[in-house]
User: Which sequence fits this backbone?
C-alpha cells in the first residue's frame, strides 16, 4: 500500500474536522517526521497538478483536504441549487441519525451509515435543516450537529417528541410524503464562505514565508 495513498485516505475520511500528525502516525505506524514529510509531498502534488481540484490546508496543527479557489463557483452552484424534488435517501438517512442521536458529530454519522457524509451534511446545513451546536469534547474538537426549527417545519412537526420513537429514513420519507403542502428548502448561504478556505491558506502561506 502506497504511503501517500494511506495519508490521503485518512485526510478524506477525517473531513472538515481534519487530522493531526499524531493521529496519522497512530493509524499508519509511520513516525511523525515521516508523516510530516508525506504531508508536504502531498501538498506539493496538489499544488503542481493543474488537473487536481484539491489542496491541503493546515489549521491549528490539523490538516484537511479543501477544494481549490478556482472551482469555488462550481461548488457554490452545487450546494445552493434549489431542490425541486424530495430529499434524497442519503439526506434522509443523515437527518434520521441526527434527529435521533443529536447532538452528534459527523464522524459518528459516518460510522452509523458506513459511508462518508460530509457533503450531505454540508448541504443540509446550507438548507437550514441542521446546524452546529458546539463541539465534542474529544480529539480534534469536532462539531456537534442538531436539527433546526426549520427541520420541524419542513416535516410538519411541532416538537421533536412528535417524531416516531425510533427515527428512520423511511419514517422521515413517510412524513415528507404525507405533508399537505411542500415546504421549500431555502438555502441559507453566503457565497463568501466558499472563499474562506483559500483565504486562510493564503494567510498561512504568507506567514510561513514572512
Assistant:
Amino acid at each position: 500500500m502506497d504511503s501517500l495513498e494511506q495519508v490521503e485516505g485518512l485526510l478524506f475520511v477525517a473531513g472538515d474536522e481534519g487530522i493531526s500528525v499524531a493521529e496519522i502516525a497512530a493509524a499508519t505506524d509511520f513516525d511523525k517526521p515521516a508523516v510530516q514529510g508525506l504531508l508536504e509531498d502531498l501538498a506539493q502534488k496538489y499544488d503542481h497538478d493543474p488537473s487536481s481540484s484539491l489542496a491541503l490546508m493546515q489549521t491549528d496543527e490539523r490538516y484537511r483536504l479543501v477544494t481549490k479557489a478556482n472551482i469555488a463557483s462550481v461548488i457554490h452552484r452545487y450546494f445552493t441549487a434549489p431542490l425541486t424534488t424530495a430529499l434524497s435517501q442519503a439526506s434522509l438517512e443523515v437527518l434520521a441519525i441526527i434527529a435521533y442521536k443529536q447532538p452528534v458529530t459527523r464522524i459518528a454519522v459516518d460510522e452509523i451509515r458506513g459511508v462518508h457524509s460530509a457533503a450531505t451534511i454540508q448541504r443540509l446545513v446550507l438548507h437550514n435543516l441542521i446546524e452546529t451546536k458546539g463541539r465534542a469534547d474529544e480529539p480534534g474538537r469536532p462539531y456537534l450537529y442538531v436539527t433546526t426549527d426549520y427541520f420541524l417545519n419542513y416535516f410538519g412537526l411541532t416538537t421533536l417528541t412528535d417524531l416516531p420513537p425510533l427515527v428512520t429514513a423511511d419514517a422521515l420519507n413517510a412524513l415528507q410524503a404525507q405533508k399537505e403542502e411542500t415546504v421549500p428548502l431555502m438555502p441559507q448561504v453566503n457565497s463568501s464562505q466558499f472563499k474562506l478556505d483559500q483565504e486562510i491558506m493564503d494567510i498561512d502561506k504568507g506567514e510561513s514565508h514572512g
